[in-house]
Here is the input.
Amino acid sequence: MSRVMSLRLQDSQIERLNRAARRLGRTPSETAAILLEEALRQREFAFIEFRDSPVGRQAYLQGTRLTVWQIEWLARVYGRDVDRVAEHLSLPPVQVAAALHYAEAYPQEVEDAINDNEWAADNIQRLIPGIEIYRVGEVST
Here is the structure.
């Protein structure tokens, strides 16, 4: 269920919202709702922030270049052992745990990102003709 809510914005905020909406390819109203949702999530989950990426807005672990879905994917490799994931990434366990809490709260968002990444990996040669692929060993568990 959604409801209409009125907000009083300053002219400079409206200009910035319109600019963000153009970049996202959304209406100002949709963009405001997206940004509000992201801000609320950031308040609810420590160490989580949202950034633009080539595939759209994504949840990242603050202070890193890692998305939440990447940490969740690695956690699955390590049997969801937070300490082992943290050691692998050279991060404090509390940060890894924060990313996994977010992933648990928004499982469909994270699962969709993992699936999209797997699809791209399976189709990379079709997506980028002539690319040379080098395989690196599996993550040791």
Q: What stands out?
A: The chain has a mean pLDDT of 94.
